[in-house]
Each structure stands twice: as C-alpha cells, then as structure tokens.
UniProtKB/TrEMBL annotation:
The chain crosses the membrane at residues 429-454, 475-493, 561-578, 590-614, 661-685, 734-756, 776-797. Essential component of the vacuolar proton pump (V-ATPase), a multimeric enzyme that catalyzes the translocation of protons across the membranes. Required for assembly and activity of the V-ATPase. This is V-type proton ATPase subunit a. It comes from Rhodosorus marinus. It is found in: Membrane. GO terms for molecular function: ATPase binding; proton-transporting ATPase activity, rotational mechanism. GO terms for biological process: vacuolar acidification. Keywords: Coiled coil, Hydrogen ion transport, Ion transport, Membrane, Transmembrane, Transmembrane helix, Transport. The lineage of its organism: Eukaryota, Rhodophyta, Stylonematophyceae, Stylonematales, Stylonemataceae.
Length: 841
C-alpha cells in the first residue's frame, strides 16, 4: 500500500483494442490521466510512424490557431482561456480543419487588402503634403520668364533664378501668412515659374536623414543642385517600418538629364518619397481636390475593412480556447497511438498504472469502446514484470504537498519505493527557513500575503498570471508555512521588526552597584550579578536587546542551536537510509553501512551536541559550583580538539561529568573503527555473495535443474574493483561530509544574525532618527524609506536568500544521506489532459 512516505504500487497492463475503438479509448485514458504508455516502436523514427501525418495536420492547425491568436492580440482582443466555456460537443477534426483554413484565408486576405489600402492612403497623404508645401514655396518664389533673345538670355535667366533661390536660407518654405492648404483651396496658388533648363524634384524624407541626404546631394552635384526643406506638422506613416515618423518635405532644383538621374538615385538610396507637383496652378488645385476626395474615400474603406476583420476575430473569442484544447488533445492522442504496437488492425498498448487506479483504467477503456460502437472486445491483462525492470515512481499529492514534492524532485526523483523526503520537508523546510528569518513582524507580513493568495485561489486558478504572481501562487502554501514558522521563531528571538516584546516582564534589572544587570528575584548582592531564579517564561528576555553583551549572547546561542539542528537532521537522514535498507531487504546495508555511519556521526558530532545541551543544563552559579575552582563553563571547542589531540587526558576545567576522558576515548575509538568497516565490509561481502551465487548457478546447471533465472536477474556483471572504488568514494564522501555538512549548518546562525542586525540598523537609522529629528518632513521621509527597505531588502532579498540556503541544506546535507543513492528513479508520467493543459500554461 502506497503512501506519501513511499511511492504507490505500480502495475504493468496490456490493453488490446481494435482500430475502430483506438481513438476513443486513448481519449478516455487521457481524461482519466492514470495510464503511462510504454513506447513499443522505439526502433521506428517519429517520421515513419503510422500516425505521423495526423500529427502534422494537428501541428498545422496549431499554427493556424497561433496565427489567429496573434491577430487578436494586435487588435487588443484577448482569447479566452476557459476551454469549457463553449462546449464543443460533436466537433469533428475535419470540420475544424476546414473552418480554420477558411478563417486563415479570410484574415490574410483582409490583412493584404488593408495593407494595400493603407499604402495607397499613405501615398495620398504624402501627395497632399507635397502639394501644400509646394504651394507655400512658389507663392513667393522668384519668377523668371523665357527670353526671346535666344539661349544666352535663357542661361542668364537661369543663373539669376539660381541666385534668387540660393538667397532663401530659411528651413521653412512658408513666407506668407497663409498655409499651402489655404492657398490651394482659395485658388491663390501660382504656377511654377522656372525656365525649361531648370528641373524640380519634390517629395518627403525622414527627418533624421536630412543632414546625410543634403551632404550627399551637395557632393554628387558639386554644388549645382539647390535643396530646401520644410518640417511636416504631423508624423506620417513610414512604409518600411509601419510606424509613424517625423518627415520633412524637400524641393531640389537642378538642371540636365544627368543631374536628374543622380538626384533620383540619391532619393531611392534614402528611401525618400518622390511625388509629382504640377507646374500650372489650375492643375495643382485639381490634383489637390482629387487627393482630398480619394483620402476620404480610402479612409472609409479602411475603417470598414478593419471593422470587418475585428468582428470576424471577435466572434472567435468564446470558441478559441475550446478549439485550442481540442487540437491539443487530438495531437496527444496520435502521439500516444504512435507508441502502440499494431498488428492487423489490432492495437496493443502496454504501460504502467498505479494499482489503485486499475479499475479507473478498465472503466475508461470500456467507455471508449462504447463511444466508438466497436464490436470487438477490449481486453486488459496484467503483465509480469522482470526483476530487472524498475517501475516508475508515483506519489499522490494534493495542493498542499505538491510544492514540497516539487522541491524534492528538483534534486532527483526517488527510486521506486524509496523513502520520500517530502513529508519531512513539510516541517523541516519552513522551520529552517524561519531559523534564519525569525521575526514576528516579517512573519506576519509573509503569512498574510500567502493567506490572501490562498483565499483568492479559486479566482486565480487557470488564469494567465505574470511571472512574479505565478511564483507566489504556486508557492502559496509553503510561503504561508514559512510565515507561520517565522512568527514562532520570532517569538523565541523576541523580535518584532527588531523591537523586543515584553509579554511577561523582564527578569533582569540594572543597579548602581554594577554595570551588569542582576535577576530581579536574585539581586540581594547587586555586585555579584546573579541570574534570575525564575527566567523569562518563553523566548529571550527583552533586556538582552539593549545590553552591551546582547550580541555575544545571541551569537553563542544561535551558533550552538545551528549545530544541534544540523546534526539532528543529518542523523534523521541516516535513519531513513536504514528504513530503505530494511524495506529492500539489504542486511549488508543495515549492518555495514547504517550502523558504522550512525556510530561515526554520533561518536563525534552527536557527542558535540550532547556537550552543548549538558553545558546549558549545568548551573554554574550554584553554591556548590562556585565553591569548586574547576567548576567553570568549559570551552566545548577545546574539549573536542583535546578528544583528538590528547585522547585519555582532560584538563580539570574542561570536565563536565565523571569518567568523561574514558568516554571520549571510547567514542574516538568507535569512530575510527567504523571507517574501515564502511570502506571494506560491503565490497567483500558483495563479492562473497556473488561467488556463492555463481557456484549455485553452476551446480544447478550440472544437475540440469530448470529454475527460474530471475532470482539473480538484474544484478548484472559484478566487478569487484568498480564496487571497491565506488564504496571508497562513498566512505570518503560521508566522513568528510560529516565535517563539512555540520559546518554548513552554521549558515543558519550567520543568516539569522544578519537578518536581525539589518532589521536593527533600519530601525535605529530610520525610525529612531526620524522620530528624534522633530521634523515632520524628515519623519515622513525616514518612515517611507524604512517601509521600502523592509519590503525590498528584508521581505524580498533576505527571504529569497534564506529560501535558497534552506533548499541547499535539504538537498545536500539531508537528502544525500539516504535519497537516490543508487541512481535517480523514473517519474510516473501518465497520459493526462490535465497535465498537458498545465504544460500549455
């Protein structure tokens, strides 16, 4: 029977169904979500499998759906995520394929038409601007008439025109008080008065390109082309980028065919729009009136086209999610059918199912047969599993335990029936986090945020959330637990935003007789500074917060507490390795791995924790202890060092109990003896067992006994050297890890002190300083900065740091003592629509 401590019992099934029932049977299995298909066509490439064309059709439909979704987003139409809003009963794949093909063609046609219409509209707008700017310029431009005295006079006239044009140095064309639009509408425009030899080129250019354009034009014409520019009042759509940009109207005066060709090439290089400008005033007015009319007509057609496209896409919103879900399910069905073995229109599927879900799978297969109206019977048989085959690992989780299971499986997936660390992490993970993050105020904020998310869970489920909100939603329960445990440890530390809470009244008081405080019920001799007879009932006494020795006191306590918590968790991990060895019936691992590991760990580090607790329990202020000069608080580090450097001898000031030197010598001897046992015993015993098995196999072969060879199946080839090296690595890793892992738990002490000191700094430098300034403005500024620092630094950065350190302590220091020691297992991955939908999100 499976539980959260060990994975569920798994059974391998074989399902036989005919071709008619194939699709509906797999569909019902996907709804059940409890059957993992085993690929029986691994030797066939994906492109050569039977249902590869169907998968390609599904991928094409998904491409079309993505295209429609992108078109909706362009129009600020958000596709509905609720795939159950419009039930698609009776929806057929072929019908949807035909419908989406027509929709895609219609949208693409509307897009092309709209794009062409907008290009034409943009060209007409540019033409309108050119006509207006040209009318402004030529209203006051010098007019040169043709000479009746021949070419010489014409050249003189041309030269005078160029000089007159060159005299205009302003950027703007406009010199009169009227705009080009007014001149054209009021019939006040004039004809272009330039000689036949002088040509003009007009158009629009992006404003950022004007300087480079003018420079190149000057060099190419050697100063024989004159250009003038005028800013356009409103941005104009750029045909290349599709965005509105600021443009400038330009007019270029030049002469000769060769110069005209150069100007044309330069305009093309800078992607300038060259537009016609009639010479006669009457033609200008007629063109302007025609352009105005065509712009209005095109605007109406464009609006109608966009409205038609929007209405077409808006009608798809309630259906879109169900279509997307339908195509996703169809593709998954054909992927699963590609893993099924086919023999003469008979499909044979094999796979894994939790034993508790066999009836659900049978019901799903029967329902698929009835849906398809198949006449053939669907058969389900239990398959025999060889000893060498390891079933997948499956743990039943709920909304609360799934996040802890995810944290564990981020390290590695448990082997089948291996002990699961997740139930222990439910308590240990938030507790270790809270040891580093202990503060009542910070814990209340964290728990309150998580509680609000839990309250809004039903409304947030299934919706698309931003990355930050999605992270908080997924970890809402573990955040709530971390907040609650932080409140608990904050009460022990007696910290509320770095302010001590005096619930029961302080048990110490200061007197004039000494700089040190004495107990309120033990202060007959104030100079003796005796501790209180009745200490503070729960947590730290608030007087420690303001004392000069408070930091030393907290430092000592948190360091020792970190070691005790670390050794306790590591011993728990070793005990879980015993549970694994016992469950898998491996007595060698029990007696020659678990026992020496427990002896080594507890002989040194367990003894260290015992000394810490014993030191806390001894009353060094008792009269009998004060009378003994050797009864002083010992240095535990010196005791542990002397245990290794001078075994059997102990200084009187370091003795904590009778017979301590002998006990430490025995513990050291036990720790040293356990190392070669861990190193040598298991490989030698495995070698002996392998030799005995070989002798038994040879004896059975000589006698001709027909025995099931699966008793020894799965052990593989035994190589003593490889086993010896592997065991040596594990032994060295464990011995050195006991030291490094214990030291690693000191991060609990370091981060806890850092968190408390940061809180204290923010309190003193912002709250107290602002309150003591007497300035209302400075108080508001300091309080605002304190809130920002508390949320930004302590609630976000510090909490993330504590979370990552707690994660490392579980992965490296705790789980490596027992978890996935023989290689990672295979996670149970059933064919489930629910899991596919989560993946799509």
């Amino acid at each position: 029977m499976g539980s959260l401590l060990r994975s569920e019992d798994m059974t391998k099934l074989q399902i036989v169904f005919d071709e008619v029932a194939a699709h509906d049977t797999v569909d019902e299995l996907g709804k059940t979500g409890m059957f993992e298909f085993e690929d029986q066509n691994e030797d066939i490439s994906d492109f050569q499998r039977h249902f590869a064309p169907n998968i390609r059709r599904c991928e094409e439909l998904q491409r079309r759906l993505r295209f429609l979704a992108e078109e909706m987003k362009k129009l600020d139409l958000e596709p509905d995520d609720d795939y159950t809003q419009v039930p698609e009963e009776g929806l057929r794949f072929d019908n949807l394929e035909s419908l989406l093909e027509k929709l895609e063609a219609n949208i693409q046609s509307l897009n092309i038409n709209c794009s062409q219409l907008e290009d034409n509209h943009n060209t007409l707008v540019e033409q309108k601007v050119v006509l207006e700017k040209g009318a402004e310029f030529f209203k006051n431009a010098p007019v040169v008439t043709k000479s009746s005295y021949g070419a010489t006079d014409a050249i003189v006239s041309l030269s005078s025109t160029m000089e007159a044009l060159g005299a205009q140095k302003t950027l703007s064309f406009r010199q009169s008080g009227k705009s080009g639009e007014e001149l054209l509408l009021n019939q006040q425009s004039v004809s272009v008065g330039t000689p036949d030899l002088l040509n003009t080129t007009m158009g629009l250019l992006t404003k950022s390109k004007v300087q480079a354009f003018d420079r190149l034009l000057f060099r190419a014409s050697r100063g024989n082309a004159f250009s003038r520019y005028a800013e356009v009042d409103e941005p104009i759509l750029d045909a290349e980028t599709g965005e509105k940009v600021e443009k400038v109207a330009f007019i270029i005066f030049h002469f000769g065919e060769e110069m005209a060709s150069k100007v044309s090439k330069i305009c093309k290089a800078f992607m300038a729009s060259v537009l016609p400008f009639p010479e006669k005033a009457e033609d200008q007015r007629k063109m302007y009136a025609r352009v105005i009319t065509e712009i209005a007509d095109l605007k109406g057609v464009i609006d109608s086209t966009k409205r038609q496209r929007r209405e077409l896409l808006a009608d798809l919103i309630p259906k879109f999610a169900s279509w997307n879900d339908f195509v996703m399910r169809e593709k998954a069905i054909y992927h699963s059918l590609n893993m099924v073995k086919t023999e003469q229109k008979v499909f044979v599927a094999t796979g894994w199912v939790p034993t508790i879900a066999i009836d659900s799978v049978r019901t799903a297969a029967e329902k698929g047969k009835k849906r398809s109206h198949s006449q053939a019977q669907t058969m389900i048989e239990t398959q025999h599993v060889p000893a060498s085959t390891e079933p997948p690992t499956y743990f039943r989780t709920n909304r609360f335990t799934s996040v802890f299971q995810g944290i564990v499986e981020s390290y590695a997936v448990a082997q089948y029936k291996e002990m699961n660390p997740a139930p222990f992490a439910v308590v240990s993970f938030p507790f270790l986090f809270a040891v580093m993050f202990g503060d009542v105020g910070h814990g209340i904020i964290m728990a309150a945020v998580a509680f609000l998310i839990i309250r809004a869970e039903s409304s947030m489920k299934g919706k698309k959330l931003d990355e930050m909100t999605a992270t908080l939603y997924d970890g809402r329960y573990i955040i709530f637990m971390m907040g609650c445990f932080s409140i608990f440890t904050g009460l022990i530390y007696n910290e509320f935003f770095a302010v001590p809470l005096d619930f029961f009244g302080g048990r110490w008081k200061y007197t004039d007789a000494s700089a040190m405080a004495c107990g309120i019920d033990n202060c007959d001799d104030p100079a003796a500074v005796h501790p209180p007879l009745a200490p503070y009932p729960f947590g730290f006494d608030p007087i420690w917060k303001g004392s000069t020795t408070g930091l030393l006191f907290f430092n000592s306590y948190k360091m020792k507490l970190s070691i005790i918590l670390g050794v306790t968790q590591m011993v728990l991990g070793i005990c879980l390795s015993y549970r694994n060895a016992r469950f898998f019936k491996e007595p060698i691992d029990v007696w020659y791995v678990f026992v020496p590991q427990m002896v080594f760990m507890n002989s040194i580090f367990g003894y260290l924790c015992l000394l810490i607790i014993l030191k806390w329990c001894i009353n060094y202020d008792a009269p009998e202890c004060r009378a003994d000069p050797n009864c002083v608080p010992p240095d535990i580090k010196a005791i542990l060092i002397g245990m290794f450097m001078s075994p059997g001898s102990l200084e009187p000031t370091l003795q904590m109990y009778p017979g301590q030197a002998l006990v430490q010598t025995l513990l050291l001897a036990a720790a040293l003896i356990s190392v070669p046992i861990m190193f040598l015993a298991k490989p030698l015993l495995l070698k002996q067992r392998h030799e005995n098995r070989q002798k038994h196999t040879e004896h059975s072969a000589l006698l001709g006994d027909e025995e099931d060879d699966e008793a020894g199946h799965g052990h593989g080839e035994f190589v003593f050297g490889d086993v010896m090296v592997q065991n040596m690595i594990h032994t060295i890793e464990f011995v050195l890890g006991c030291v490094s892992n214990t030291a690693s738990y000191l991060r609990l002490w370091a981060l806890s002190l850092a968190h408390a000191e940061l809180s204290n700094v923010f309190l003193e430098k912002l709250i107290y300083m602002g309150a003591g300034s007497g300035s209302a403005i400075l108080m508001v500024v300091c309080y605002s900065m304190w809130i920002a620092m508390t949320i930004g630094v302590l609630m976000l950065m510090e909490s993330l740091s504590a979370f990552l350190h707690a994660l490392r302590l579980h992965w490296v220091e705790f789980q490596n003592k027992f978890y996935s020691l023989h290689g990672p297992g295979a996670k149970f991955k059933p064919f489930s629509y629910e899991e596919l939908r989560k993946g799509e999100e």
